[in-house]
Amino acid sequence: AWKVYFNWERVLKIKTLLESAKTHEKNQKLENALNNYREILKIDKHHQVATERIAAIVPLVSKEAYLSKIEFLKMNIKWYKDSRRRNNLGIFGEIKNKGARTIKDIKIKVTLQGEKKNIIFKEDIFPLAPESDKKQLFTPNSVIKFGYRVDNPPAHQKINISYQIIDIKFE
What we know:
There is one protein chain. Helix content is 30%, strand content 35%. It is of the alpha+beta class. The strands form two sheets. Strands 1-2-5 form a three-stranded antiparallel beta sheet, with no helix packed on it. Strands 4-3-6 form a three-stranded antiparallel beta sheet, with no helix packed on it. Helix 3 runs antiparallel to helix 4.
């Protein structure tokens, strides 16, 4: 009879971690679920459910999958006057991190086209790199506002903007 209860702490720990992992998955907290499943494998390296769930979740938390969790709230261009009363063209945006991971760097490809479909500006911008040396982190559920000045803008004309996130780096 003692043999039956010998591993009860181990069995209870796995059961608790498994329940927690399933709850995290249900609530879309995939990183937390992964951590729980990995803890299970530390206790039982052959645990089938943990192994299968890790294989299913890892691709979902990859960079490409995470891009859908970054929402553009605003992205526009605007003419403004600087302190010397010169006309400048700026790109202004707001993005929200709707995922569960903290991002330390994000790269957005921005293209501006003139009325005749000519490319006025095509560049990668980095909204998490303010002018100071200290980068900010893009934490879950936070919103980042950013602005970028276009050097040597053309004369006032109708301009179309297109943009796409092309890379992110997690903390």
